[in-house]
Amino acid sequence: MPTASSSKHILNIAYDTSLMDSRESILTSAGYRVESVNRKQDVLKHVLATKFSLVLIGHSVPAPEREDLIVLIRACDRFIPIAFVAPRTDSQSCASADMTIASHPADLLKGVSEATTEPWAVGDALTLKQ
Predict the structure, then answer these.
(1) Cis peptide, bond prior to residue 105, ω within 30 of zero
(2) What DSSP string describes the chain?
(3) Per-residue pLDDT at 6
(4) How far apart are CA 2 and CA 96, in angstroms?
(5) Residue 5: what pLDDT?
(6) Domains in the chain: boundaries
(7) How high is the pLDDT of residue 119?
(8) Cβ 22 vs Cβ 66: under 8 Å
(9) Residue 86 above 60 pLDDT?
(10) Are residues 68 and 40 in contact, defined by beta-carbon separation less than 8 angstroms?
């Protein structure tokens, strides 16, 4: 029987392959469908080809590039929720992301679950930070 998480499709962006693979493994084991990319040029291809429930941008992506990625993603789908994954929620932030999720597995799963729960994922993402 499918779980609620199995219908959620997540784009996982990280420039550190071990962090990317670890995050993908955690989310996949929880039933999420995950596509991971570790290059900026691959993000556009994925966002244009697939409807995602959530985009995760990891802390291994340099800060200026995070902002560039968010602009690029919003140009393709302005309603997609975007979360910044930080080592701890108080350690770093990404001003343009809709939320920050700590990378600890339990925090990651909780944050992803909250971010992919209706009505957040139906277009309210931009208004939640205002």
Answers:
(1) no
(2) ---TGGG-EEEEE-SSHHHHHHHHHHHHHTT-EEEEE-SHHHHHHHHHH---SEEEEETTS-HHHHHHHHHHHHHH-TT--EEEEESSTTT---TTSSEEEE-SHHHHHHHHHHHTSTTGGGTTTTTTT-
(3) 65
(4) 33
(5) 65
(6) 5-122
(7) 61
(8) no
(9) yes
(10) yes
Radius of gyration over alpha carbons of the chain, in Å?
A: 13
Q: What is the pLDDT of residues 112-122, one digit of tens each?
A: 999 998 665 44
CA distances, 14 to each of 24, 40, 50, 128 (Å): 10, 9, 18, 24
- For residue 96, give the amino acid letter: S
| The token pair that represents 17 in the structure block | 């392959």
Fold of 5-122: Rossmann fold (3.40.50)
Closest to 8 in 3D by CA, of 57, 48, 53 = 53
* Peptide bond preceding 119 in cis form (omega within 30 of 0): yes
